[in-house]
Design brief:
two-stranded antiparallel sheet, Serine Threonine Protein Phosphatase 5, Tetratricopeptide repeat, mainly alpha, 9 helices
C-alpha cells in the first residue's frame, strides 16, 4: 500500500501530489510490500526484507525504462566478464618445448596439417646418430614449409644431439653445417666446411658449404672460388661413389648447375 503525499517528485523534481507523479509516473510517499507488509520507500524496486519486487497499488511492475536500464547493465557485466576471461586465456604461456627425451614426438603429424599416423617414436630409445638424423630431417621439412618457428625451436636440440656423437663423418658435419646456416651461424658452418676438407681433402661437401655460406653473406669472391674448386673436383669425387654423395645427389647437382651457369 502507498500513502499519498504532496511536494516535489523525488525522481524528476516536478511538483506533484497524490500517489504518483503526473510528470514521470514515479510513486510518491512510502509504500508497503505486498508480500511481507514491510514499509518501503517510494523509489524502492525491491523489498529490503524479503527481496520481492515492489509493485504499485495497481500491481504494475517498475517502469519499462527502469527494467531496460537493469537489462543493459546485466549485459554489460556479462560482456566484461567474457573479455576478462579471453584476456586471461590469451595470456596463458605457450606449451614448453619438449626436451631431448622425446623431441621427435613434439607437435606430431597434426602439427603440419597431415593426418595422424600413430604416436611418434620416443627418440630417447635411439642411438645418438639416429636421434641427430631424425631431428635434422624434421628441421629440413619445417624449412621447406617456411616454418621458421619450428626451425628455431628444434635446431638447438639437433646440434645438441650432434655434440653427443662419438664419431662424426663428413655427412654428419655437413648436416650440422646446414643446421647452423638455417639459424645464420655462418662462422660455425664455415668452420665445419674447413674440418670436412681437412679430414677428407677435396670432399665436395666442403665446397658446397663454403659456397652456400658465401652466397648467404653476399661474399661474391668466396662464392666464385668455392664453385671453381667444386667443379675441379666433381668428376674424380663422384667416381668414388661415396654413399653420402648418392644420398645428397640433388644438392650436388643443384650446386653444380649453379656453378656451371656462373662460369659461363
Amino acid at each position: 500500500m502507498e500513502e499519498s503525499t504532496s511536494g516535489p517528485c523525488p525522481r524528476c523534481g516536478a511538483v506533484a501530489s497524490g500517489n504518483f507523479c503526473s510528470s514521470c509516473g514515479a510513486g510518491l510517499g512510502h509504500r508497503t510490500c505486498t508480500h511481507c507488509q514491510a514499509g518501503v520507500s517510494a523509489e524502492a524496486r525491491f523489498c529490503h526484507r524479503c527481496g520481492k519486487a515492489v509493485t504499485s497499488n495497481a500491481g504494475s511492475p517498475a517502469p519499462a525504462s527502469d527494467r531496460k536500464a537493469w537489462t543493459v547493465a546485466g549485459i554489460a557485466c556479462v560482456l566484461l566478464v567474457g573479455a576478462i576471461a579471453y584476456q586471461v586465456s590469451d595470456a596463458a604461456p605457450a606449451p614448453a618445448a619438449p626436451d631431448m627425451a622425446n623431441a621427435g614426438a613434439a607437435g606430431g603429424p597434426q602439427a603440419t596439417g597431415g593426418a595422424s599416423a600413430g604416436p611418434a617414436p620416443d627418440i630417447s630409445a635411439m642411438t645418438p646418430r639416429q636421434r641427430f638424423d631424425r631431428l635434422f630431417n624434421r628441421i629440413m621439412q619445417a624449412a621447406e614449409r617456411r616454418d621458421s618457428a619450428e626451425v628455431s625451436r628444434f635446431t638447438p636440440m639437433a646440434l645438441g644431439a650432434y655434440d653427443q656423437l662419438e664419431s662424426r663423418d663428413a655427412d654428419a658435419r655437413y648436416h650440422a653445417a646446414v643446421l647452423h646456416m638455417q639459424v645464420r651461424n655462418f662462422d660455425e658452418a664455415r668452420a665445419l666446411a674447413d674440418t670436412i676438407l681437412r679430414e677428407s681433402p677435396r670432399h665436395l661437401f666442403g665446397y658446397v658449404v663454403r659456397g652456400e655460406v658465401a652466397e648467404l653473406q653476399g661474399a661474391d669472391q668466396l662464392l666464385a672460388q668455392a664453385r671453381r674448386d667444386f667443379l675441379a673436383q666433381y668428376p674424380s669425387q663422384m667416381a668414388t661413389k661415396r654413399v653420402e654423395y648418392l644420398d645428397h645427389q640433388p644438392v650436388l647437382e643443384e650446386f653444380k648447375t649453379a656453378a656451371e651457369g656462373a662460369t659461363r
